[in-house]
Amino acid sequence: MVPSIFTRLSVIVPVYNGGTAFELCLQSLQLLDPPPFEVIVVDDGSTDASAEQARRAGAQVLTTPHPRSGPAIARNLGARAATGEVLFFLDADCSIHANAVGLAGQLLAENPDVAALVGSYDDRPTAPNLLSQYKNLAHHAVHQAAPSEGFTFWGACGVIRRDVFVQLGGFDETYGRPCIEDIELGYRLVESGFRIRMCRDLLITHHKTWRPLGLFKTEVFDRAIPWSELILSRRRMENALNINRAARLRVALSGLIPVLALAGFGWHPAWWLLGVVAVVLLVLDWPILTYLAGLRGGWFAVRVIPWHWFSHFYSGLAFAFVVFRKRLGTKTPERLPGAASVSETLR
Known about the structure:
The chain is of the alpha/beta class.
């Protein structure tokens, strides 16, 4: 028998100029079995046909009050309109697996102490270029290896009980562009005593095509720097996802690579030290490299090593930048968790 919670699950999709990826997202929503109670698409001022595509697909379409308001405001707007007891947030550039609603509903019905679920990218990203394949598969690998108890939420594929979402005030709307508003919500969930469960079988397919400049901008300025600020403001370094102790060691070692490479031109022993650092990094990264090799072959794993080490490097550089700025006394914008102005829009 299908648990009654299935009949009250609302899927919420924020979109801005979704393009072909959004068409695939809408197609996947129509294949959900069992179907959700409702699908709400929040158009953030698209200049393409995203809103009309969503209407043709049978979704309820809302529009943000100002174009490019950001996913935090868009998701909160969708949550306010939702009538389901459970909110399923999905990114517009992702296709959802057909069993996702059923699986999410079953897990929440069987685990009343769990407030939220976090899913995972699958191992079938559609963008064919090396960088896109690497980044999406690396994200998949991190989620598949994560412990069952989570501490962050994920807006791309995240499920949360509506009453808990309202109680916490929804997403922090001071994040005006795609950023870490979902991670920050996860921190508040855990700090308020709620449980988040990582669900490795709750899968979505990511259709995004990554290019070097866009990836660097997103990863550094929209993820690494604001997440570093959040970590320092909360004074916590969780051993989960991609900021565990081993990850911190990888970051430190990756920072030595350019230093030793430059030093090697005037001090030849630096080349030997560089070799040692590279070997240690390979050992630390061996689990994910062998996982990627199992998915795409050994040559794929070899080719993505520079990108993988570069990701360690810029993550550490971003954290060091935030620490340095903090010590200089430079103020960063306050993020008020559970701000009343946000909460009131949801009640």
